[in-house]
User: Fold these one by one.
Assistant:
Number 1:
Amino acid sequence: MSDPSKAPGSPGPGQRIVEMGVALFILALGALAMIGSLRVGIGWGAEGPKSGFFPFWVGLIVVLASARNFWRAIAISPARLFAEWGQIAQVRKVVIPMAIYVALVPFFGIYVASALLIAGFMRWLGRYGWLLTLAVAILLPILIYVTFEDWFLVPLPKGPLEDWLGL
Amino acid sequence: MEGIADLLHGFGVVLSWTNFVYMLIGIMLGVIIGVLPGLGGANGIAILLPLTFSMPPTSAIILLSCIYWGALFGGAITSILFNIPGEPWSVATTFDGHPMAQKGQAGEALTAAFTSSFVGALFAVIVITLAAPLVAKFALQFGPAEKFSVFFLAFCSFVGMGKEPPSKTVAAMMLGFALAAVGTDTVTGGLRLTFGSTELLSGFDFLVAVIGLFGIGEILLTMEEGLSFKGKATGINPTVVWQTWKMLPRYWMTSLRSCVIGCWMGITPAGATPASFMSYGIAKRSSKDGEKFGTGEIEGVVAPETAAHAAGTSALLPMLALGVPGSPTAAVLLGGLLIWGLQPGPLLFVEQKDFVWGLIASMYLGNIVGLVIVLTMVPVFAAILRVPFAIVAPIILVICAIGAYTVHNNTFDVIMMLVFGVAGYFLKKCNYPLAPMVLAIVLGDKAEEAFRQSLLLSGGKVTVFWSSPLVSAIMALGLIALFWGGISKGLNRVFARRRAAPL
């Protein structure tokens, strides 16, 4: 991972820049906690310490620790790779379908969205034939339906298809 | 002997048919969860927790704790056969376990791993049986200041004992506390840190965080590494098991030492992972075959597995007796107690005898049943890993999403799960520890409550945390743990100088 390759065109994002970004992101969240705490009051009220008292100091520690992490991140060798572009592409292949899936769930229900996610994965990443893909993609949501709705009596989000089927 | 009577009573509770079936289901599910990438003890339990809301608490905890034992066993299968640690605490098992499998001794390695796991767990359960009631009785006298000091000690241990840089541990942990604070203030009932968003009114649920951080995050890491599961064949049969069992007593010293290390690391919340590494390292240094470690020594399998299980099991001691979990999985179980309407902590031993002793009895039985199941069914579990990742991954993602949804029947939680998942991927890659963060999300409200109550009682003086010998002692221990990195470095230097001087 740490081999300094001097080839033109970087093989992937550097660990340094990512760590700096992560430190800054956490620092921002800490600052946000402090701002939110200031709004509800961080002092001493009728009921003892006010609501913002504890999160304010917590936020301050987050900010201080993140500042230190940022400082340490600067010292990381620029040659150290976070991951290769190919690896990042692999991760994207999960994150993007998952983001679409999460966006679809409120509108189409979890069963239809799950069927699409499984089918997409198997066709796109696994390069399986349509027959197997459709079999798994359709049977698994049915299995989930039976397990959750009939067995555990836990209702899961449904969409137009379930309405049409009258479930 | 009141303890023995209580324990026997506990066995009576467990040995009902329904509870025994739950135990079997729990172990099987647990091993599968431990074998699959992206599903581990903590988030497997987090996903199933909402399904137990309607169950009697004792059955629910038996089911869930057996999933935990199963997951602990399952990690060893993937480590030895596939050289892929299914759980972080089984990384050290790959060092000698996989070379043994390559030499065709997979059966021996698995038998050694499962048996040592069992020994480690049994040792820890005995420690729990003997020590937990005493700790609980002692902790009954705790006021808010003492309670806060125990939380302080637990969190400081993460900073000092963790292998991550202290500033990263602190940042991750305090971020967890900040996330826990979002939503309703449990003391005054007022809202805070929601920034006008209605979705944040109920705050961040730790179950969603666990499923995201450990489940989705783990899948992303697995994708990045582009794993192809190429496993070794298993040749496990009664003869191999018997032969290995005859060899194992030779390593009783390693075993005992690993038990003690494991229990210590599990109770102080350092956790199973460092316990397994430490135990492996010490076994390597003190064994006469030390230089052969890493090439397939059975002792190198015994040491980390014993310690990991001892730690994983003993992590439940502080959770039961003090309400402070020693590991993320124990934290999820603690969250479960709260949901079932039980107040974790010392009062549990007084008010919920059936529950506590039923759980402790199920630890004994669960580990015996678990040992039998894994020894007989390894090929079945190994076959699960041969299902291609392109099929397994979306199914795990769907299961995680359902788990996140069922926490509050809310699709916003599914979105939060994905956010936590991506965050978990980056945090893990940047060497931020996730365990203290999860513990902080679970315990945030309780720690804050104890802190504010203490200040309220003292009229705002911070000196309340140094007001009695007990509080002062725990706080001092906390500070030692917090600065342990620096202290141990200093001690080493002193000892090194002393050793160098006479020469």
Number 2:
Amino acid sequence: MKALKYVFVCFTFVITALPTSGQELAIDLTKNAVPITANFIGSELMLYGASESGGDILVVVRGPNKNQTVRRKKKSAVIWVNDKEVTFLDAPTYYFLASTRPIGQFLTGDTAQKEQIGYPAMALIVKGAIDDSIIIEDFKRAFIRNKQKQGLYGEGPGLVSYKGKHLFRTRLKFPANVPVGNYNIDIYDFRDGKIINKESTVLPIQKKGIEAQVYNFAHKHSLTYGIVAILVAAMAGWLASVMFRKV
Amino acid sequence: MWITAGCGTEQRLVQIYLPIAEISVNIFLILGMGGAVGFLSGVFGVGGGFLMTPILIFIGIPPAVAVATEANQIVASSVSGVLAHWKRGNVDFKMGFALLFGGIIGSSLGVELFSFLRDLGQLDLVIKLSYVVFLGIIGILMLIESINSSQQTKKREPVKRHTHNWMHGLPFKMRFRRSRLYISALLPISIGLLVGLLAAIMGVGGGFIMVPAMIYLLGMPTVIVVGTSLFQIIFVTANVTVLQAVSTQTVDVVLALLLLAGGVIGAQVGVRIGARLQGEQLRGLLALMVLGVCIKIGYDLVATPIDLYSIGMAGH
């Protein structure tokens, strides 16, 4: 209820803040950061906004880019072994696309390509030389399919809904296995197949509190971390033997 | 994979996000696993790493994290175990150091190999294959032994010590007073080396290999075998923990702490109950469990994968 009220207040704010040029697009998020804490099980937030034109809205969320490798298994004797591999340079670790209608209905191929909207337009650049027997398209499809299975890639027409003529909203979901980093959120306002407005915002998803401390310790002072880990374990083992001897 | 359906508060209470494994797990599941494997190690006097690591992998912990974290947990259980043996004087330190010398070399090589295989994309395969081979061998041997002794068909011959064979022609002979042995130092060093290698790659202490090797190969008296092997395991797994922490950053202390909290309690209960249970039938049961895990891992390697393609992080 509280969240709804907040959304409502924000909506009102957005409406009153709209100038009268007829082209405005304004957006906001119900959270300005997603902290990964010890009890993190994924997160959901609302993106809402107002478009004066009331056109088609498209929301694209991209997670931090990373080199990611897709491997294909091959049967060798009786077992399945990783065989050929393709590494995609700086591919988004997270990708989510929401729109008011199926994008084919209001988006031209050229615009999709230019703005990298949708899987076909996603720039998956192959690292290094690969041998001729590899069909890149298969690896690209497999990459997207596996990402979808992990809940990290998704798209959905109809996920952006209008409330009235100008107010719209969509729900953004981040599963528990979400990669940390800065998420770029782009919101497009389409009219007659053309982008008439674009807004962008950044949503940081970071480990917080004890999660961040342990992670940073493990990565920045890994030798000390390793030594502390064995000391803690040795202490626990010693404590256990002392405690239970007296019982 | 873990896709959360909702964000209910009751779910939040039992879930914990592991900072290194980067997944959310149920606290009670992890404590329960620690307890169950600890219980088995208490009953049978086995380390339990060879059961815990595959179970961690089954519930979705990345294999690299499972192996490195389990090494850390074994440090705790071995310290707790060695103290009792030390008090009774059942540790041959000289032998322990010889085993350890090999163990440090083996485990250091093992961690190098581990990183190399990870970058190559073959780490999971090698871990799983090692498990199939070793669990298969151990499970079958244990099953045979339990069937034999429960049927009482065979009176076991006492192990003959000091039989002279090729091993006694090896150089660098050393006297191990506590074990009453005069053998080449190369023998315990090579046993230690092999076990260290396995410890690094499989996330086990390696007692299940070392103990039989010490009894049957070296001819050590049975009473000091367990204490001495635990002594070696402490330092080898400690070495693996530090090296993994430095080279792969896959040691998850939060996971290790949860596992050992469950494990410590389970082991104490296990020791008490184990003393009252019928040994041979239980041993048969453990053998079946070991074979069960072996078959499950083996089946996953042989069965046609649902998706031939998988995503991994690119090697650095």
Number 3:
Amino acid sequence: MKYVDEFRDGALARKLAAAIRAEVAPDRRYAFMEFCGGHTHAISRYGVTDLLPPNVRMIHGPGCPVCVLPIGRIDMAIRLGLESGATIVSYGDCLRVPASGGLSLLKAKARGADIRMIYSAADALALAQKLPSRQVVFFAIGFETTTPPTALVIRQAQALGLGNFSVLCNHVLTPSAIISILESPDVRELGTVPLDGFIGPAHVSTVIGSRPYAFFAEEYRKPVVIAGFEPLDVMQAVRMLVRQVNQRRAEVENEFTRAVTEDGNLKAQALVAEVFELRRSFEWRGLGHVPYSALKIRRAFADFDAEVRFGLDYVAVADNKACECGAILRGVRKPTDCRIFGTVCTPENPMGSCMVSSEGACAAHYNFGRFRDVPVVAA
Amino acid sequence: MQDDAAGGGAMRGQIKKGYVRPLDLKRGRVDLGHGGGGRAMGQLVDEMFAAAFANEYLAQGDDGAVLPAPGAGERLVLATDAHVVSPLFFPGGDIGCLSVHGTVNDVAMMGARPLYLAAAFVLEEGFPLADLARIVQSMAAASRDAGVPVVTGDTKVVEQGKGDGVFITTTGVGALSPGRDISGRGARPGDVVLVSGTLGDHGTAILSQREALGFETEIVSDTAALHRLVENLLVAVPDVRVLRDPTRGGLATTLNEIATQSGVGITLDESAIPVDAQVEAACEFLGLDPLYVANEGKLVAVVPGERAAAALAALQAHPLGRRAAVIGEVSADPNRFVQIRTAFGGRRMVDWLTGEQLPRIC
């Protein structure tokens, strides 16, 4: 594939690996968090860890949209589907996230709720137009990448005067999540999580630009390198982070210049600002209640806000006690530190959200890396 | 629409004695009467199925077909496969030919010579007879090409909304030569793994037709009967250990089944696995992994290491195996893991598929 294969080239990867090996200080450990699930996926899918020196550790961050979705929010959608008979539409990954009472959207579907998978926000709007006699609710999730399309369909629905379409909004913000991790006692005071820097989001940064990260670099003295989702991007970013650490720099650098500018996509930002405003607080799975970390639909568009239309209330639900998703999302624990990893909690029967999407730290390790946990058998 | 009386009174004079109006293949639709066991059903069976599949065994017209026994020392192989596919017609095929190929291949993967097929149709009320005729014709053509006749069958009609147009279940009987022992339990450390061609064509062709996706490709399904390719391979390499067709769940699922059944590990070379450039691009776009996408005209073979070259040559000599490749090797591994050396230079597992393959969000 032209324009993609170039970023997956094995020969280049070996050269980069050698360059990283040459640059790391042998007596020092490096721990970098890749914020995004897209990076986690690339690292696992291409076996990037095998190309990094043993003293460079990658910590999987909370940037997997379904992983940070709290149980209570999915419960809202399930209740809506089962009790008020609305048609609930969402992205594929969302449908399997475990909720209360052993349910998920997919299981609610088997119990008679009308739940459908869509590929884009535009599909949700089109479905509402096709089914005028049904209430169609788009269960919208994701970081800044998926927010502009949601804003767009809300505006279109208003222009069309579409009375049977609404959005249950769960859009969250990347910078607030990073602050929450940096402010957590584990990182800030106790130092139990050695965190030397971040690989910054790829697609999110195309929207918000590179500027919002300057604060972390300065305030928390952590280097940030924004990187694309291809494996060579990740390796190049690791090399740039190693270099910053070695030179005691803490700056925002942009490896993903082919798509990310300093300002980001101003049009998309304006659209989002028109339709959404900040929520005072939002619960994240793993991070708890994070102030100003999510968006809600502005009053001017309240007709399309499912929470308003159906009078939905949020009820917080605690995670399964044995589940370590919270600590794993903050980088405090590894998937294999969790007692139920791979035993009670598997991709077939996920207890925690990190086991659901292939971008989740636990599912990625289970599906791609589990062979590393057992004694090596000669091939 | 189907009328039950043969015309109005004014026409009576012109109608020949014994005339029965044939099925209206242009505008007719399946109705509940076609499954009722009465005349309408008899007509559907005669004009639609018996006409298309015509052969001496089906012509016996009884509840079952009486068939000659296979050769001396041969054992029987029986396989069955229910076919549900949406859309019913897709680039490169339809549910009709698919239902023949699927079961012929299941029999062939046992190393057996497919002999006969039985077919059961579940039709949904309201389904256009014209579409049914297309499906049955395609099925008959596939059966003729494969040299495997449909010798008996059954038809049921379900109410509208209780089916998805047409479901077809086919059952195949084959004869297995003495001494052949091909099974999922056969893989041994030191064996090599081959595939007969590019992976993911069928599943991607189907997905590209689903209306919600709205993307266009020229990818066509690889649906094909593989028994002649298998025969080619078995002549050159009689000691083939395992044969499987990587249908639903794709190559990854098939290899995990083999590793589990045989109690071995398998390691693949990503750069050796043949994937069509268009399929690769479509999967990239949809967030799918071609290793998990269905095939309907490909086989996986496990052969002893020293037979790799002979097996590859035999596969490549047949038109259905032109892009065959050696893609990995079998090792001793109590964990029965399937792993892959990525083209990028790393290593990872190729695990069982969880649920359905779903596109990722970001």
Number 4:
Amino acid sequence: MKLLTHNMLQCHIKGVKNGYPLKIEAEKVEEREQDYEPDFLRHIFPRINWDALREGAAAMGIDDLPESASEELLEDDEFLKKFHHALLEVHLEEGALVCPETGRKFPVSDGIPNLLLQEDEC
Amino acid sequence: MGRNDRPEISAPPEIFYNEDEARKYSENSRVVSIQTQLTERALELLALPDDGEPKLLLDLGCGSGLSGEALTERGHVWLGLDISKAMLDVAAEREVEGDLCLHDLGHGLPIRPGTVDGAISISAVQWLCNADTSKNDPRKRLRRFFETLYACLAKGARAVLQVYPANTEQAAMMTNAAMRAGFSGGLVVDFPHSTRAKKYFLVLMVGGTAALPQARGMDGGEPEDEEDEVYVGHRKTKRRKHGHGDKDSKRDWIVRKKQQQRTRGYTNIKPDSKYTGRKRKDRF
């Protein structure tokens, strides 16, 4: 699971107000190379929640992202490469996503998070 | 399972799409080509702006990632959701580019509002019309699905859902649920006059008043490509009725059967006469 996906996911249990961002409990992290596409990065940047990305990256052992980011930084190639690496190349293989409000754990195995709910949760 | 049975009535999706069924979706070339064609048509209906910029798309009911591969080919980044672990395992094995999540669409999408540029779904949403367990209420599940789908799409985005409705009521149920969630758009039916090539696409738009795209094959034509004749998903084809109700008398039936035998090359068939099919006298 990429951090891009993590950035989009929120807890969808009924009645949860602050189901975002999900906390990452990483057991196994993998890095896989991905084509570098600055166009996509610029396109997606406005929708990325930067704090959630930084938090997620830190949980996966990446802490070279700046504390805050703005549109101007998108012209900087070095920043884009870091952004690209964190967003698309680092994969969570084993671990869990934890809902910040209820503490419900969604296990991640083989890179696939299990987001199925029990009937009483939805 | 016969060709005429719908998979939807045999078992819930997470059970129906087991390892055996999942394997078909990577090995059977007919299934692969049909899925790819459906995805391409869905992408055409999605009408993404042609600016060469890669988009973030959702693939709902991504299965083994066949539809996702078509998205990757066009350079898009995608996130796939599916309820069948076996299908997702096949997708992971094939090393698809998109991310995969095990998830039930009827529980609502776990996606932050306004984040994706579009959504496609190939032959998945009709599963939501099933009431497999006592707790499954199709209307509730459809409502939750469409409401969260509406929320997670960016402004001006579209969702194209290819579905196999079992009947007109089911098609109406899905369309109504979508409209109630706030979508505009509607059902596009390709090749409406063909039983086998007929395809339903639910084209949904967030905001905007764009006209519905034109369906294919409105002139009663059939797809040119032989491969287009699709029987995946086990569409219910009309069974030909034997006999013609009251109009067909006993004698007509006998004459027809005799003629049938003659055309098959039997030579010992008695000629038809006024005595053919007549009841014998009781005293015989």
